[in-house]
Amino acid sequence: SYCGYAAGWLGVYEGNEFLDWAHGSRALSEGEEHEQAMRREFVRLAARLAPAPGEIVLLKNARAYAQVTALHRAVPELVFIRVRREREQVVQSVLGTYRELGTFHPVPAALRGRAIGDPLEFACEQIAAIEAELDAQCAALPAGAWMEIPYEAFCAQPLQHIVRLAGERLGLPREAVRDSPALSRLRASGRQKVTDAEAERIRNWRP
To answer: Measured between alpha carbons, how far is 76 from 78 in angstroms, rounded to an integer?
Structure first.
């Protein structure tokens, strides 16, 4: 199951539960033996998801942000796509989710067990910590193992970015990329989800 625009896409898997499915909650940094086991599970999962040999499996796995390098060691064939959105919009979104559901997720290690206190401040710290961790993880990867796509630019020209990804990272020709009506419906939401005062606080927040 998948929410949002991807409901109309084929071959997209909601992968946030993959790490738990493969090996419980154990970290991927437990050594070579664990990485080999993770590789076996990953290959098994990919075989289940891909309908035909050579098809690409796309996992949306935001929860793995702190384990990118370990995943790379276990499955070097993976190509990581970092979709970077304007921080102000991300903070507004997670703050809105907290007010609806009463929880922040995922919570970086440095913030776990800490009282939320001011939710807006916590949301800013959460996103800043995740971005910093992703910066460090991506910097440790070989150049060909990852790419970054600005969220707003992707929504404006999704097909062009998919063609670029397919060609530069997957070695696929342009004709391998099929257009989809779902792509024309993509929009980067710039809607303000908080009060004016809160938006100003988020805009001016610094780590």
So the answer is: 5
